[in-house]
Amino acid sequence: MTKFIGTGVALITPFNADLTIDFDALERLVEYNIANGTDYLVISGTTGESATVTPEEKKQLINFIVKINNGRIPLVLGIGGNNTTNVVAEIKATDLSAIDGILSVCPYYSKPTQEGIYQHFKAVSEVSPKPIILYNVPGRTATNMTPETTLRLARDFANIVAVKEAGNNVHQYLELLRSKPKDFLVLSGDDDLVLGVLLAGGSGVISVIGQALPKAFSEMIRLGIARKAKEAYDIHFKLMPITRLIFSENNPTGVKAVLDTLNISKSHVRLPLVEATDGLKAAIKSEIENLEKS
């Protein structure tokens, strides 16, 4: 599944001041990423505020990004939830002809057992015509998918090809890398840990900060995959402060403030999220200026 090796970015959904979708800004963001080395785009993930985007808006986002991308780089679509029946129905109802893979989050809120997680993804696998990237993010779902469950799914279902691991748990990454099937991809969902994951054998990232600084970030990922540790860490250390800042007031609040500073899109978010504080915006602006000087 080489399409998912390297730098994937979880696109924000840009909004106008009235909180309608800003399609002009979305086009700028897509073009900016394609021009600066991003390997694939992820539509309707957590960073895209999928929780507050309506089903009709989701269709509009898919159609627009498919049109703008025009087959230039792979596209991954987020389809997940805690109602297995609804997830299965959405996969069946969605035109996936221009989509290269599905990113599907572990069921949230319901707090299923590991067997419940397995059976959920078994049902997803059985109806998906596209490769599946599992998404483990226990900080949001309240349930951790253990390496044992992830690897059981990887071995049992040929179309489950990768996991986006976002538990900020180094031991869990290492257990996945130690025991995974040869062709199964371990992708980092933690921008601050990704380089260590790559050097240990990971295959890439689905990033938040990558969409704002795609040139530097994607170069770091390429160097990491090539096991060029010193050169990769030189970039990592430069990006550490901005990466820390964007998660200090939740995601995508921080990265939207970065993109606003870069004049790509505005920082508007939908409730219950609120915009970055003036203090965070000032700190982000200062750090972007530092990066531009370096």
Write a short abstract of this structure.
This protein has 294 residues and is α/β, with parallel strands linked by helices. The protein is 47% helix and 13% strand. The radius of gyration is 18 Å and the shape is globular.
Main attributes of the structure:
47% helix; globular; 8 strands; 294 residues; alpha/beta; 12 helices; eight-stranded parallel β-barrel
Description:
There is one protein chain. The chain is an alpha/beta fold and 294 residues long. It is 47% helix and 13% strand. It has an eight-stranded parallel beta barrel with strand order 1-2-3-4-5-6-7-8, surrounded by four helices. Helix 9 packs across helix 10. The model has no long low-confidence stretch (mean pLDDT 98).
Number of helices: 12
**Residue runs with pLDDT of under 50 for 5 or more positions:** none
Task: Give the helices and strands as they follow along the chain.
Answer: EHEHEHEHEHHEHEHEHHHH
- What is the straight-line distance between the termini? 35 Å
**Could you tell me the strand content as a percent range?**
5-15%
Count the strands? 8
Instruction: Give the biggest sheet.
Output: 8 strands, parallel, barrel
Instruction: Determine the fraction of residues in helical runs and give it as a percent range.
Output: 40-55%
Overall pLDDT confidence: 98
Global morphology = globular
For the CA atoms, what is the radius of gyration? 18 Å
What is the topology, as strand order, of the major beta sheet? 1-2-3-4-5-6-7-8
Which class best fits the helix and strand makeup? alpha/beta
